[in-house]
Request: fold
Amino acid sequence: MRKETLIIKIDPEIMEEQLVVAGKMLAAGKTVAFPTETVYGLGANALSESAVDAIYEAKGRPSDNPLIVHIARLDMLGELAGEVKPYAKILMEAFWPGPITFVVKKKDHVPYKVTGGLETVGVRMPNHPVALKLIELSGVPVAAPSANLSGKPSPTDVKYVLKDMNGRVDCIVDGGDSHVGLESTVLDVTGEVPVILRPGKITREMIAKCVGGCEVDPALVDKSRQDLVPKSPGMKYRHYAPDAEVSVYSGDIMAVIRTFYGRIIEVVESGGSIGIMFFEEDALVLERLLEDDAVYKRHREKVHFMKEGSSKDLDTFARNLFKDLRKLDELGADIVLVHGVSENELGHAIMNRLDKASEGRVFKI
Ligand code: TXA
Ligand code: MG
Reply:
C-alpha cells in the first residue's frame, strides 16, 4: 500500500518549527526517516508495537532483527535500560552523543518486537542536531534502523532515502549528508568487559583506552568459523549489498593495481561495465597503465573511477563507501573492484562492510 510521504527540507534557521510536525507524527505512531551523523534512520515510537511493525513493513525486514532505540538525553536511558554497569556509564559520558550503540538489559515495557525477542536493547544518542531535536519534540524514544530497503546499502544521502522509502513511510526529513557514512559501533556492555558486535567509527582502540579493555565478537574475527553465530543478529544477513558484484583486494599495492588493470581490460573486452574504488595514490599508477592501452581507449566510458581520498585518510573512505556503491549501481557497473585496507582502527569497520557488500569476495594478494 502506497503512503502519502511528507518531505521536509531542513533550513537550519527554522529547524525547530519545521520539525514540530514530524515530532507529532512520531508521537502518533507514524514512521519518519531522518538524518543522523552515521546514516539516515527510519524512525518510529519504540514503545508502540504497531509503530514498530510499520518500520519492518517499510523496510521489508525480518522481524527477528533488533532495532536501535535513539534518545536525545541521558535521562531517557532510564526509561529503557535495567542495570547499567559503571564502565558503560563512563563510555556513554565519553562517546555520547555519537556513533556508538550500547546493548544493555532492557526494561520490561520495551517491546520484544523492538529487541527481536532479546532481553537486551540497543540504545544510541546520535550526534546530529536534526535527530536530537526531532527525538526531543516527539517526546518518545525512537526505534530506527537504517532507512534503506532491507539488503541495500545504508543511505548517507537523502536521495537514496527518497529512492527506497518515498511512498513507504509517512515523512522524510532532508537534513543533508551523513558525515560519518558507516553505521554506529554496536557495543555489548552487559558483561564484565565491553564486546564489539559491529565495528564502527568508535573503534576498539578508543574504547580500550577509555576503560582499559575491549573485546570483539569472535564471529567477527574468525570468518572461517561457520559455527560462530554473530551476537548482533543484523550481522548474519546479506547486507549493504549493491547490485554489482563486488570484489575487494588488499596487500601489495602494485599487485592490487595490476589486478585492477587486468580485470578492467577483461571486463570491457567482454562488453561489461566496471567500477573501481581506490585511492588517490593508486590513480596515478593505474592511469599510466591504462593510458596506452588500445582496448581501454575504445571502452573508457565503461570504466567508472571512484577516488576515495588518500589511503592515509580513512574518514573519507568511510564517508563515501555506501554512497559510491550506490552511484556505481546507477552507472550500471556489473563488476566493482575495491582497494581494501588493513583491519585496524576505522579500517576494521570499513572491511566489515566490504566483506558484506562483496559477500566474502575479499582477497589478500
Ligand atoms: O548508525 C546506526 O546505528 C544507524 C542509525 C540510524 O542510528 N542504525 C542502524 O540500525 O544501523 P540497523 O537496524 O540497520 O542496525 C542495527 C544493528 C543490527 O546489526 C542489530 O542486530 C544490532 O544493531 N542490535 C540492535 N539491538 C541489539 C541487541 N539488543 N543485541 C545485539 N545486537 C543488536
Ligand atoms: Mg541497516
Notes: The chain is about 35% helix and 20% strand.
